[in-house]
UniProtKB/TrEMBL annotation:
Comment on bound cofactor: Binds 1 [4Fe-4S] cluster.
Enzymatic reactions: 6-phospho-D-gluconate = 2-dehydro-3-deoxy-6-phospho-D-gluconate + H2O
Domain Dihydroxy-acid/6-phosphogluconate dehydratase C-terminal per the UniProt entry, residue ranges: 406-597
Record key words, sorted: 4Fe-4S, Carbohydrate metabolism, Gluconate utilization, Iron, Iron-sulfur, Lyase, Metal-binding
Source organism per UniProt: Roseinatronobacter domitianus
Positions contributing to [4Fe-4S] cluster binding: C155, C222
Domain of life: Bacteria
Protein name: Phosphogluconate dehydratase
PANTHER family listed in its UniProt record: D-XYLONATE DEHYDRATASE, PHOSPHOGLUCONATE DEHYDRATASE
Length: 601
């Protein structure tokens, strides 16, 4: 099938926009590849330090005869998704030895759990943790002892931070190794119902706690389709996982086999062999377009509208909001996974999952097939699924049809004709809205504004019964320069209750809402942000606003709006406590959300 003309045009536009920076990037990684890992040229003292603890692997390392694999791990047991990584290094070392190679843990990176920090001061470090992870991974890889790298990471900021590092070390072949989702627990719609009951004061905290523990109950990724699982989808669409690796549960024989195969595949694609596949070559314009297509087709997390531009910039590629908007208008929504539906990612995977979806999108000409991946040339192999047969790992053609049309549909009968992500612009600035789970009757909201400067104030007003009419709730001074751009996900139950009462409500913010934003219209990532004097800082209580997801309008309908002086507020409280003082320099130098809110890139 010929490539869809819009996908082709967007790719060409990105390529033209990025030509100078991409050419310079490719030249840099080519020079680095020519130099190769320096371990063969290290002094005796350098090598002794590098190999001192490697036991029987010392001779192989010192001789430089076999490839050496660097492991960068985001393991901790605060994140359920990362707890399985505890024993991955020993498994990867064993896999390397089995083929006569070696592997070393190059370093660890921080990995915070947004589920723990939601609504807490620690969430103000969340977005900045992405750039911290990139820095930490850069330190790990700076030893320059590695012919290839495997990155162990799953969750929200971790994969984007690791991708930034992998692109920076673009001459090094790179494989991402997932851990998989936890098995299904309390259904997501039941969890949401209990949260709303608690928000209305109908149940006790003990009952809420019981429901939450039944939902988040074991090792693996949270099973709703938020940022973590969107990351895993991206790694397949962009060719950095082995095909079908994303949604296999932890601790299963197939998961173990995929981990071993991932390590050994990384060793096969080094410059020492005849199938050299450096990360910087895989991460080209087509890979990022494929990632955006996957984001729209699955109804993935809006956080990736922030992360993909930052990831791409590390590879010399420049993405713009218009690229996301044009792809969203072209790619249909093929999946309904919570919060866009009732199913979780395990149900999605069982229904045919990413393999079915990639096959359908390729047949429709909506994906670039002519890409390089860690598995080989062409994306079509990602329409296959891994299986164990007589103890051997094999790939076979995936489901030729959906196994549950309530969760996953073919191109001929999608849930929606578009991906559900819309670019917003107007006299309030630029932003995005995800409407894949929003009822069409709520795609246009015109109402008076109620202005807040933090989440707590919104909750206080709700509990006091102050919001009794159609309202657009504005939560400003939540951008990256103000306080690190925390997610406002803890407002979702409140907004849902107001909507269920028959009110037309919406959220407008320069903060984030993530992949769990649900059924309430939310204009997010609004830029320029209030802390930089953006239009949000000129809003007043009672201003009439228009949020129109059908036309992409985000406007203030007040004649004197442009002549107002922007409000400034004291943000000094954001400078201290729970580590925030350590990130003052990040807040001072961070870029706009429209360009990925980057600090180091």
């Amino acid at each position: 099938m010929p490539l869809n003309p819009t996908i082709d045009a967007v790719t060409d536009r990105i390529r033209a926009r990025s030509k100078a920076s991409r050419d310079a990037y490719l030249e840099r990684i080519a020079r680095a590849a020519e130099a190769g890992p320096v371990r063969a040229h290290l002094s005796c003292g350098n090598q002794a330090h590098a190999y001192a603890a490697m036991g029987d692997d010392k001779d192989a390392l010192a001789g430089g005869r076999a490839p050496n694999l660097g492991i960068v791990t985001a393991y901790n047991d605060m994140l359920s998704a990362h707890q399985p990584f505890e024993h991955y290094p020993e498994k990867i070392r064993a896999a390397a030895r089995a083929v006569g190679a070696t592997a070393q843990v190059a370093g660890g990176v921080p990995a915070m759990c947004d589920g723990v920090t939601q609504g807490q001061p620690g969430m103000e470090l969340s977005l900045f943790s992405r750039d911290t992870i990139a820095l930490a991974a850069g330190v790990a890889m700076s030893h320059n002892c590695f012919d290839a790298a495997v990155y162990l990471g799953v969750c929200d900021k971790i994969v984007p931070g690791l991708i930034i590092a992998a692109a920076t070390f673009g001459h090094v072949p790179t494989v991402f190794v997932p851990a998989g989702p936890m098995v299904s627990g309390l259904p997501n719609d039941e969890k949401a119902r209990v949260r709303q009951q608690f928000a209305k004061g109908e149940i006790s905290r003990e009952e809420l706690m019981k429901a939450e523990m039944a939902s988040y109950h074991g090792p693996g990724t949270c099973t709703f389709y938020g940022t973590a699982n969107t990351n895993q989808m991206l790694m397949e669409f962009m060719g950095l996982h082995l095909p079908g690796a994303s949604f296999v549960n932890p601790g299963t024989p197939l998961r173990e086999a995929l981990t071993t195969a991932s390590a050994q595949r990384a060793l096969e694609i080094t410059a020492l062999g005849n199938d050299y596949r450096p990360a910087g070559q895989i991460l080209d314009e087509r890979a990022f377009v494929n990632g955006m297509v996957g984001l729209m087709a699955t109804g993935g997390s809006t956080n990736l509208v922030l992360h993909l531009p930052a990831m791409a910039r590390a590879a010399g590629i420049h993405l713009a909001l218009e690229d996301f908007a044009d792809i969203s208008a072209t790619v249909p929504l093929m999946a309904k996974v919570y919060p866009n539906g009732l199913a979780d990612v395990n149900h999605f995977h069982a229904a045919g999952g990413l393999g079915f979806m990639i096959g359908e999108l390729l047949e429709a000409g909506l994906l670039h097939d002519d890409v390089s991946t860690i598995a080989g040339d062409g994306l079509r192999r990602y329409a296959q699924e891994p299986k164990l047969k007589d103890g051997a790992l094999v790939w076979e053609d995936g489901a030729g049809e959906t196994l549950n049309a309530k969760i996953l549909r073919p191109m001929s009968d999608p849930f929606q004709s578009t991906g559900g992500l819309t670019q917003l612009s107007g006299n309030l600035g630029q932003g995005v809205i995800k409407v894949s789970a929003v009822d069409p009757s709520r795609h246009i909201i015109e109402a008076r504004a109620r202005i807040f400067h933090d989440q707590v104030s919104v909750k206080t007003a709700f509990q006091a019964g102050e919001i009794t009419e159609d309202t657009i709730i504005v939560v400003r001074f939540q951008g990256p320069a103000a306080n690190g751009m925390p997610e406002l996900h803890s407002l979702t139950p409140i907004l849902s209750v107001l909507q269920d009462r028959g009110l037309k409500v919406a959220l407008v913010t320069d903060g984030r809402m993530s992949g769990a934003s649900g059924k309430v219209p939310a204009a997010i990532h609004v830029a320029p942000e209030a802390a930089k004097g953006g239009p949000l800082a000129r809003l007043r209580d009672g201003d009439k606003l228009l949020l129109d997801a059908t036309t992409g309008a985000l406007d203030v309908l007040e004649p004197d709006f442009d002549s107002r002086t922007p409000l400034t507020i004291d943000l000094s409280e954001n400078d201290y406590g729970i580590g925030r003082e350590l990130f003052r320099a990040f807040r001072a130098t961070v870029g706009d959300s429209t360009e990925g809110a980057g600090v180091v890139i």
